[in-house]
Fold each of these.
Amino acid sequence: MLEKIRDGSQGVIAKGILVLVILSFAFAGVSSYLGSTTDVPAAEVNGDIITKAELEQAYQSERSRMEQQLGEMFAALSADEKYLQSIKQSVLERLVADKLIDQAAKAMGLRVSDEQIIAAVKTEPAFQTDGKFDNDRYQAILRQLGYQPQAFRDMMRVDMTRRQLTAALVGTEFVLAGEAKQLAELQGQTRDVRYLAVDSAPFLATAVVTDEQVKNYYDANQGQFMSPEMVSLEYVELNAADFAKNNPVSDEEAQAYYEEHKAQYVSNEKRLAAHILVMPGSDEAAAKAKAEDLAKQLDSGADFADLAKANSDDTLSAEQGGKLDWFEPGVMDPAFDAALFALNKGQHSAVVKTDFGFHIIKLLDVQPGVTVPFADVKAKIVAQLQDKKAVDQFYSLQSKLADTSYEVPDTLSETAKAVGVDIKTTPLFSRDNVPAALNKPDLVKAAFSETVMLKGLNSEVIELEPNHVVVVRVKEHHDAGTLALAEVKANITERLKQDQANEAARAKAQELMAQVKAGATDLGLVAKAKLGRGAQDVDAAIVGKAFQMPTPSTSPVVDTVGLANGYAVVALDKVNAAEGVSDELVNALKQRLNAQYSEADYRGLIDSLKANAKVLYPVEE
């Protein structure tokens, strides 16, 4: 049979078929390169494509920027897929805006020449050394960023072309000095007011709410009573800290470790030092010359203690003949330290310079390093060996945890048996009230993921802390929905009672307002002169109301305003002009307004271009 097959494969017909097969594969391969891709783009702007790869690259860059800016806060936020999706959508809208600007610039005939790009590169401070363009630095930075020079220049051309259009628009914006001054005067304005708060608390006792009212409120406001999506989990946990207590260490093991690592338990050599210090003051050269002269005197046989008492600027040690203290290596200034530990007992150094001045150092005595007895370090060694055993056990079990939870993905029973621990469970929780022990961004993300929550499979191994991991699976899942009336009845009742009390407080405030307008002066209103917009000692609602009220003429302007728990009567007596509006404040407001106007202009440009464009967001079928 094999002979016939081999002979048949050498025939003309067989060779022809083989050629056709080879050609079909060849043309299929070529068409995959030359033909149009079948991938659905992220967006299409007037026929120009924004690919999913472009979107993903821009999205990852934005994520990196936000991680650097927000730190741990971003880790918590990123556990919510909806939040990440909103970031991705905003990135896509930015790419669409860039595409619209590119198209508008092209339609207007805007161009950037090679000479302009070269000039921009040469004047970029990042590419300069000592204020001059450094080609080696330029090439190094491009390599670091992963750009080829031509690709970088192309990117700059696109960016500079965009800026021609946006800068021309934004650059035309301006703020009048009078406009900024008027705003400064409005912000600095103060008001003389009187007010009286009517607390709703006294009216709560008489508030009555029927079951029918509760039911009507529930039916009309069901959007307020949505329960979030919730899960309860089963999980298998491995924590090296739990293993340490179950790993006893014998005296023999501890002794053997001590003998093997005895060098670690030798105390450092200590040296008793003395010095003569000459501080430089305003004349460093003179101080150095004095120190060198003292060193020569010592070399000639002068007594160190006598010279220290007579000449050292360290008055405390000078009284002791220059004697300092016992020092271990690394305690003193590096130069002092090096000189001290290079001396033999009784020797003095040459002049040594430190940040304190010029020293001459003498070694008075040496205390050799000694081996710490085993008994003194036994407890520490036992703890170290227990931790090591625990970590070794942890890594061995972590491997089993990962393998078994993956191989048997629809239960944790086999996993728990393999690693010898019990399965733990959690109560139902939402994204906002995760049990404290498991409240880590990666775990929350896994708990509400499609794999765990919807497919019911085990998660991957999730690290909570170093040497502390879990694998989770869903035990119970509740979709987001409307809470039953029975669950929220008490809250609705309290809310409706509060509403009744607030309404009673409002009616009382209306009565008081009428009396104030009629000229009553014995109502106990609190007077506040020169109330500012940022006042902290007055309820923010009263402050806001005071600055919404028109300027009074012959009589006060009186109105009411709702508070968190009640109402207040507010009487505006006088509007005071701002005091001391500085030029600095006016200039700062001009800059702020200019930035706001420029941002509005840019948004207006994008909105205008988008309104006249065909922007599509294809969806994969």
Amino acid sequence: MVAKGEKYRVILVDDEPVILRSLRVAVPWEELDLEIVGEARGGEAALQLVHELSPHMIISDIRMPGMDGITLMKEVLAENANRLFIFISGYGEFEYAREALREGAFDYLLKPIDHDELIEMIRRAKKTLEKQMENDKLLHSVQVLSVLARERMFAEFIEGNQSQSHLQHMRWLENSELMQDYFMAVIQLDHFMKLNEQWSPEERRLWLFAVRNILGEWSMARGALTMFPFHGGEWVLLFPSTLTSQKEELGSDVIRQIQLYTKLSCSIGFSQTVAGMERLSEAYQSAARALYQRFYSDRAGVFVDQPSRESGVDREAKYPKHLEAVLLDSIRTLNRERLLSALDETKQYIEEQGFSKEAAERIIVELTVVMFRQYEQMNLLSEWSLEGLLQELQSLETLHEMIGLLKTNFGRWISESRDSQFKENVQTVIAKTQEYILSNYHKDLSMEEVAERADLSISHFCLLFKQVTGYTFLEYLTECRIEKAKYILKNSHVKVFQVAPMVGYQDPRYFTQVFKKVTGMTPTEFREVGA
């Protein structure tokens, strides 16, 4: 409502100059941290000032020539109900004053003006404005947290992390929309890694923020169910199946919009149609498969995942998911020997299936992309180029050469990553994140923020943090907050509801629930036992 450091703005309205002068001089505006931004001698002039100066408070005579105070108030409150009116009325105008209160006035004062009474009334009005500002901030925080929770829950489902609690939480996020048929679009900025190297951290935030705004407005206008960022340089959109026939049009349009407003190029992959929240991961894999096609075309564009058209062949059944899992786990654990062995198994699998060169190349390219993305998510990439590797793969003629190239490159990258990753002891990195949590537990601390402090991807940070501390991030943060709360309760007389925000909980009821879950007692019971 008012920015930090700014004063609440006040307009004075009265047709008698002596009254205006008295109000201006007799009230300690500076001491009250208020500022008179305008004066008017009639309702019409006051309304103009309101439009120009956006005041928080209007102190006005109730009876004036032309537009009276009550009419003025009705006009102003219709535009912004949070503005406060204090009326000054004569003894014979009591009925007007009562009407003003019914219509929404904060209070009224009878003439002749008792300035002490007026000052006290203004103090109360200011407190009301401050309360409104706190409520506005709280509402904004709740809305932001709701959006973040929604995005995080979608991300969990896309990554395949589904639990019964997730399913229950998702019911209030998307109880109906995703129960019907829908399809997913995944948008990726082209050459994102190269751009990421060129951008400063601030430039990166600004560019990604700009793309997100463009996609947010565009998706609402084009009937999308939701839109949110997923990985760096990547956004997910969900559409109702009624728009299935418009995939090419939708894709081309969003690419044009991003190119027009940011000059950045991107590609978009559309999934096949699915239904149900639990199939978000399947939809993402389908859209990602569609995006693999851009590496064949070597250009930005719209790509749509289609059911396999190979005669008598089910492409999904032939893709070696079991080998993909082994390869990804080898990268996550930086196990070079296991990776090389899994690539040999991949070669053997393709030979045994008798794939054509085209089919074999498609499987190898898909494996290469998902393996590279695992490196990307772990923040282990250096000067490595996915596009260069894919181009080299496609220039080779035999399966032996293709597998040999992957073994050479990925084997070398694991060795380099293993060497660089342990230059700084993992224990030291996690210890630094623990110190950061201990210093910032009272804030709205996110896993993303702490992982960024450790210069790790979220998935890699979670893995290392659990290995070193034995806790998940949320468990550790909760333990830290409750320990601080116990200390405050034992060593001070701060009220329980005041303790909650001091340790990072804005909702005292939720704080009490968490405290009891951890300690077996409510905060009040704990204080009484420790007394």
